[in-house]
Known about the structure:
By secondary structure, the chain is an all-alpha fold. It has a single domain, classed as 434 Repressor (Amino-terminal Domain), CATH 1.10.260. The protein has 6 helices and no strands. It has helices spanning 7-17, 24-35, 39-46, 50-57, 65-75, 79-93. The longest helix is centred in the last third of the chain and has 15 residues, at 79-93.
Amino acid sequence: MTMKKSNADTNKFMNSLMGREMTFGMAIEALRISAGISQVTFAKKLGISRAQLCDIEKGRRPATIERALKIAKALGQPTEFFVKLALQTQLDEAGVEFVVALKAA
């Protein structure tokens, strides 16, 4: 079953992110909410369980490069954004003050 969110709900969520550093989990949650679908439906699309998706969104599962690649592929999206965000999240969580910049090899 798909859970549709109204534009007001999506806008409210996106506004709650303003002024905060975007994490990998926050980006995944924002994509899901902007698509207006439930965690169950989105998790199926990603090939993971709803519990795993919840853990990713809440930052309880690490933002690995492998996970970023898998999610980008499942969503049919370019990998650069997801890999960059995963790496940046890892650095931020480790307290390392670097900014990730990627370029194709």
